[in-house]
Amino acid sequence: MTRIPPPRSRQAHSKSTKQTRTAGSLTIKMAGRDDAPLSVAEFKETLYATIRLLEPFSSSHRIKRAALYLTSVDEHGSPSSIGFESDITLRPYDCAADAFDTSKR
Known about the structure:
Layout: H1 40-54, E1 72-73, E2 79-80, H2 96-99
Antiparallel strand pairs: 1-2
């Protein structure tokens, strides 16, 4: 994918909206062509593409935490919410922390 630099006339973000990046962090943005909303099927394929992008690092790196922020719209392009809790934490079926958690024994 070719990266197009933003126009020079664009105003800089204020300090209140600027996100700080920590060492070792990576930002992956997923959007449709011309910033069009993605269908769920397109989003699924984009997630798979992200995994394929990270696969070469699987033997040397681990993911400490990943956050996915979804902004959804309805069929008319109006902001909408998906019928889940606002925060969801997903964990692998058997994570390393559970293997060493003695309170479950």
